[in-house]
Structure to design on (310 residues):
């Protein structure tokens, strides 16, 4: 049994430790930085909302409603990153008539920060995609396509570092194997490289040389393939990755209510998220950054895109 003197001494020590802990917590909270990541994928030239025809998706999507939603979020949040995971083209008469020009112009007006390339973005040929990027105010990010000697040679970058306040966010992209998806005459001589190897090399550069607080991969590999579990996809990419925090996916049109958490090679968490297709949803991930490059997903939700959706 503790003596009265020992009890008072231990109680004082405990109270002091508690106060110190509370002070450290409040200091951490005060120095935390916020970042909101908004993302789309597989919009497929859906510039207008779905028609009011009684179908399941009637009234959903459309660039006007998406633009308003994005603008409203930016008005409330200081640091926002807007990204797209590919298949911008193909799916409505807009693409048949204008070959992607209005889609790229709309993304520029909405202030997209970056995108990657999907297999359907080759549908009018690589040279057409490169030409439409003359209307883009944002970069195309790909680290596993070799565009040397093609129309895209000077139209893309393997990664980009975005500065949001004091945060440095490294973003790269990986594209899907074109063989069997894209006819040779449309690839323009593009060479496909191993996405896992190229992603890990790029992530290491972003971490060590660029000193990024976070590394994001825009992937058009697809979420997963139950009929072919060994096919390279986002879940496999995450497991074999190093230094990647978040994979924003596309290609499989997967609607996710919350991100999947996967352990990478080093036992660290990698988040995977995807927002369906046709611009019906806008993915949103809210992160808090703490001292020592620690980060926490404080909120994740999928926003349905419709008029007056906020």
């Amino acid at each position: 049994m503790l003596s009265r003197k020992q009890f008072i001494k231990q109680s004082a020590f405990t109270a002091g430790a508690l106060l110190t802990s509370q002070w450290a917590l409040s200091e951490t909270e005060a120095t935390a930085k916020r970042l909101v990541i908004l993302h789309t994928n597989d919009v497929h030239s859906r510039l207008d909302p779905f028609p009011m025809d009684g179908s399941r998706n009637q009234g959903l999507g459309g660039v006007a409603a998406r633009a308003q939603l994005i603008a409203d979020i930016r008005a409330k949040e200081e640091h926002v990153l807007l990204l797209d995971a590919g298949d911008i083209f193909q799916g409505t008469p807009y693409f048949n008539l204008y070959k992607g020009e209005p889609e790229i112009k709309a993304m520029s007006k909405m202030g997209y920060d970056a995108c990657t390339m999907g297999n359907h973005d080759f549908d009018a040929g690589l040279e057409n995609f490169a030409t439409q990027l003359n209307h883009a105010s944002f970069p195309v990010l790909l680290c596993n396509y070799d565009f040397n000697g093609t129309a895209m040679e000077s139209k893309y970058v393997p990664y980009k570092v975005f500065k949001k306040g004091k945060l440095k966010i490294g973003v790269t992209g990986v594209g899907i194997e074109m063989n069997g998806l894209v006819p040779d005459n449309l690839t323009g001589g593009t060479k496909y490289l191993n996405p896992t190897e190229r992603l890990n090399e790029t992530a290491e550069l972003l971490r060590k040389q660029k000193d990024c607080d976070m590394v994001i991969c825009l992937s058009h590999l697809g979420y997963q393939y139950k009929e072919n579990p060994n096919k390279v996809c986002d879940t496999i990419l995450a497991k074999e990755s190093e230094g990647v925090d978040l994979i924003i996916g596309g290609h499989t049109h997967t609607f996710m209510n919350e991100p999947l958490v996967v352990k990478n090679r080093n036992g660290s968490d990698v988040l995977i998220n995807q927002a369906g297709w046709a611009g019906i949803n806008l993915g949103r991930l809210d992160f808090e950054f703490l001292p020592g490059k620690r980060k926490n997903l404080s909120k994740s939700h999928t926003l349905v895109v419709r008029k007056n959706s906020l």
About this structure: Confidence is low (pLDDT under 50) at residues 1-30. The CA atoms of residues 36 and 80 lie 5 Å apart.
